[in-house]
Write a structure and sequence with these properties.
The chain has helices at 10-13, 98-107, 162-171; strands at residues 5-6, 58-61, 67-70, 91-94, 123-126, 133-136, 155-159, 176-183, 186-192, 198-203. By secondary structure, it is an alpha+beta fold. A hairpin with a 6-residue loop joins strand 5 and strand 6.
């Protein structure tokens, strides 16, 4: 295998491949007190001759303090899936106050609570379809104050009458982040629940 050796300092002096042309970059593992984040402050994206790395090139850590590029053709193939994934099967929001959140989704949104299996605590599940939706106490290590809850996740609930629910929530002073607008999924609006989760509602209007 023909490879180009690069100095460790090049890793910090060149732009990240993930940020140049959208090519993925797998950074070498941390060694000692060194840290090799995915992107930066300046990750390895071009070689010492300033030529862009081929798409899919991976970076391998070397014991002698240098690094080596492995062309995409020399990479091992990914293992075949060991099972079939049929899709999402359960969705739950981690909330600060389970009782308060349960009351909101029952009284304001209109969800019906499903029976709780014997021995299960800290979780409330509603009778929804096609995916069961629920609330739960935070998992160990979860800090809901660390940032906006659900950041980066898009969650939508389907209803029979989006306009009616919008009118109801507005009358109850529930924060409405986006007023009703037409979408391919029907009339849609967006509200914020008591824990700060951003929820979209869509359906007939």
């Amino acid at each position: 295998m023909v490879s180009t050796r690069l100095r460790r300092t090049d890793y910090w002096n060149t732009p990240c491949a993930a940020c140049v042309g959208g090519r993925p970059l797998v950074a070498p593992a941390a060694r000692g007190n060194d840290s090799f984040p995915h992107c930066g402050p300046r990750s390895l994206g071009v070689d010492e001759d300033e030529k862009p790395l081929p798409p899919g090139t991976r970076i391998k850590d070397r014991k002698d303090g240098n690094m080596e590029k492995t062309p995409p053709g020399d990479q091992p193939h990914a293992a075949a899936p060991v099972t079939h994934v049929s899709g999402p099967d359960f969705l739950a929001l981690q909330v600060r106050d389970l009782e308060r959140a349960t009351a909101f989704y029952q009284q304001e949104i209109g969800l019906k609570r499903a029976p709780t299996p014997e021995g299960v605590t800290g979780v409330v599940v509603f009778e929804t379809s096609t995916i069961p939706f629920g609330l739960r106490e935070p998992l160990p290590g979860t800090d809901l104050e660390a940032g906006p809850p659900g950041l980066g996740v898009s969650l939508s609930l389907h209803v029979d009458d989006a306009k009616a629910l919008h009118t109801h929530l507005k009358s109850r002073s529930v924060p409405i982040l986006m007023d009703p607008f037409d979408t391919p999924f029907g009339l849609t609006f967006v509200f914020q629940d008591p824990d700060g989760y951003v929820i979209a509602i869509h359906g007939a209007g």
